[in-house]
Amino acid sequence: MQRILAPLAIGLAGAAILVWLGTWQVQRLAWKRGILNEIETTIAGPARPLPDQPDAEAQRYRPVALQGRFDDQTLRVLVSVKRQGAGWRLISPFTTEDGRRILLDRGFLPVAEDIAAPPQGAVEIAGNLHWPDDRNSSTPENAPATNTWYARDIDQMSQRLQTEPLLVIARSVTPPEPDVRPLPVDTSGIPNDHLQYAITWFSLAAVWLLMTGVWIRRRLTGKET
């Protein structure tokens, strides 16, 4: 019995830690699903007017309905869309009926296509407020001089186009643009890897117990010196 106490203690302690880590990831999975469900509910909620005092924390993803006109300017943001390839997000200034000038993300255009001018005349927009975080450690700096943008920097873009630092991502544009496909906000870009992490920790716990069993067997059969 003395020969198996050490491996048994080490095996049970290690497995307990790994199971605890897996259980914690299951709890995090439930927490993340709750957040994603809340975001999806917000995105699909009833449209509201533009806020007088924008708040990135309280109003992110808020649905809005706008009427107004585009100005004849477009910033192009390089993106890659699944099953579509490389293209541009087209962002133009939009002046609402009550005179507010904001940024409007019109949607996606493949790089092979000529940059589409904004629609002329009055249009209706259904969309969502957003404060995107496109930049990471490998994102190049924006190049406004050549109208090549790699991240939607709201402050920088609003200064360039002389608008409020407020961005709306279009869900639909009426009348629609024939060559531009809206890229509405959704939760697909928010990582949720907790299930994979949980499976990994539980699998490691099983392997740990298996190896502990092998260790104990070797001690009992005298194969371990």
Automatic annotation (TrEMBL):
UniProt cross-references to Pfam families, sorted A to Z: SURF1 (PF02104)
InterPro entries in alphabetical order: Surf1/Shy1 (IPR002994), Surf1/Surf4 (IPR045214)
Membrane-topology annotation of the record: Multi-pass membrane protein
Transmembrane segments: 195-216
Domain of life where this protein originates: Bacteria
GO cellular component, one term: plasma membrane
Compartments it resides in: Cell membrane; Membrane
Record keywords, A-Z: Cell membrane, Membrane, Transmembrane, Transmembrane helix
Keyword Transmembrane helix: yes
Xref: PROSITE patterns: SURF1
Family assignment from sequence similarity: Belongs to the SURF1 family.
Name this protein carries in UniProt: SURF1-like protein
Organism: Pseudoponticoccus marisrubri
